[in-house]
Automatic annotation (TrEMBL), chains A, B:
GO terms for molecular function: DNA binding. Residues 33-87 form the HTH lacI-type domain. Residues 1-31 are annotated as: Disordered. This is LacI family DNA-binding transcriptional regulator. It comes from Agromyces salentinus. SUPFAM superfamilies: lambda repressor-like DNA-binding domains, Periplasmic binding protein-like I. InterPro entries: HTH_LacI (IPR000843), LacI/GalR-like_sensor (IPR046335), Lambda_DNA-bd_dom_sf (IPR010982), Peripla_BP_I (IPR028082). Keywords: DNA-binding, Transcription, Transcription regulation. The keyword Isomerase does not apply.
Amino acid sequence: MTPLSDAEPTPVETAAGRTDESLPVDARSRARPTMRHVATLAGVGVKTVSRVINGEPNVSAATIERVMRAARSLDYEPDLHAGNLRRADGRTRTLGLLVGSVDNPFAGAVHRAVEDAALARGVAVFASSLDDDPEREQAAVSAFLRRRVDGLILTTASEDQAYLAPELRRGTPVVFVDRQPAGVTSDSVVSDNTAGAALATRHLISHGHRRLAYLGDRHDIRTAQERRRGFLDELGRAGIATGDAPVVEGLHDEETARLATLALFDADEPPTAIFSAQNLVTIGVIRALRELDRHLDVALVGFDDVPLGDLLVPGVTVVAQDPHAIGRLAAERVFARLDGDESPAERIIVPTRLVERGSGELPPRVSAR
Amino acid sequence: MTPLSDAEPTPVETAAGRTDESLPVDARSRARPTMRHVATLAGVGVKTVSRVINGEPNVSAATIERVMRAARSLDYEPDLHAGNLRRADGRTRTLGLLVGSVDNPFAGAVHRAVEDAALARGVAVFASSLDDDPEREQAAVSAFLRRRVDGLILTTASEDQAYLAPELRRGTPVVFVDRQPAGVTSDSVVSDNTAGAALATRHLISHGHRRLAYLGDRHDIRTAQERRRGFLDELGRAGIATGDAPVVEGLHDEETARLATLALFDADEPPTAIFSAQNLVTIGVIRALRELDRHLDVALVGFDDVPLGDLLVPGVTVVAQDPHAIGRLAAERVFARLDGDESPAERIIVPTRLVERGSGELPPRVSAR
DNA sequence: CTGAAAGCGCTAACAG
DNA sequence: CTGTTAGCGCTTTCAG
């Protein structure tokens, strides 16, 4: 008879919740079993259990079987963090992902791609929303570091990430997504914002527009700056005076964008075409144009895709980013660093793609004010 | 002079990466500082550092200041997991969230609500996508348990969650969201699927429809069963023969739903109204109706909201769930359990709400086949 | 108010 | 092939 059979969990429960009695094998089901419990039950030493659990060599098949049975019967789950305390590589097999908000299609796609890459390596992913708040960013990074994540992937909300320098020096891989780092040097994966914005602008110009408006996010967000620059540069190349092109910044949600659009058409010389530099802004613009019943005569190209954009009337023409590729590349970069890649910080630029669906192909029509 | 000032990080680096030299205070910036390093640098014992870091009482203001300075100068971040090894409550201040896919509006909203509730308590959130795969569910639960999460919130993908029983017995709070548990008893937070489906169906019937079709998810998903039941029950109440109402199941994405809809209108006696029981199915149906140019004469009510549903033409009438409330309530339940709530498992039902936008109010029109 | 010693669950480094 | 001892970074316990 193996030691296993007569050590089955007894239905006996002590009165108090505490396990005060010192049974060699703790069969009371409420206590979380440790490696020692498994070892005693299997009649082997703890190190042997450790070998079996970690799939290390030099254990006889019979012993493996005994240990596995004991572990299963106790419903044993090893404590990853306890192991990491002593383990040579000290890896927690955990990643931290910081995004604008997990409740946002772009972030969701990045997250999913990161998760897929992580899953293949047995790595779990912490996610945290920052709402573009620099303080939340620092707090979240600290919270993850205390949990000893192996690496960080972040859409930064702060203007300067110098606070990450000590951690970077310790070798923790940090990959910036969507926005470039400032104050530190590290890998980043971003869309080609300037080129994408220029592409959108050129598209509108090629359809005959000369009076184009830019509606975008806060100017202190680098990504927004780049898109604005792409827009203005392209106007310049087309010989359109950039001075009087309406440029509205500081928009960060549907409502502010909607109101800004309404104001734009309430002023003199409204534009015949709009470039909206962010997906929530695009949606706000669409709402406003609908309200004004101008959605079929004001051209619109948005940066970043909009859910169900192909089902709207007109379809929303966008410069689409590839959030899934961004997430995948970021995760690959983190893992490459963890695998020892010491090459200089890389800056991966993911191309954007113009998706013509109707709104961007509308010809200019003089406002009937 | 305090011990701090002459122990500033030296720019000297050893040749090898390894910290082989035994300096009492490790000033080499590459090594991760421990509480001991902070203690030595501040000239106090480790327990005092522990007290300061954890905000425990009985430390003089001067000592607190010294320790804080030392910790900051070393950029020290305490190791939460090492502490938990010995700590009485053993809480990792970490939660595991399992959903269909983090790349999904419903899951995103649940996630965000859980995160908000968790943030207020200093709890970090692991997220994992299951893709309705029972094996992924078990693997993800195990991965989280090994990382010793304090609680689990899950949209189950498996038919039976009996495998969770031992963990439940150990007192780990588990809250099911969106889908009820089977094989175990635990808290759950779900939408009122049957009532919501009945509401949608009644709405269509009240607009004169007698030939309604049901398009839904896999029949082995309880949620889908409940919605189907709500639909059929309501037909029965209205005296409509349920026998020949088209009921298409097993749809799980836009494409399968689109094809199923096309097939429906290719057959005899197509419906004048459709109830689609899931958001991706709703989108597939909309695409098909557009293709057939029937979107303005076939009524449609979807279960669960669709992004930008109000901007489509016609607007998409839906029975909206409240994913944010579901996530918030689930998190509150987990924290109540962690705070010692021992009351019987609760089943929280979140009401749904009919949102009329046009597609559900279309009158029946005989097919011009 | 402070610190030394023991121990949490596990793995490294040796013995056998 | 297997077990023993020490120690990871921290908190507990207990003694100043």
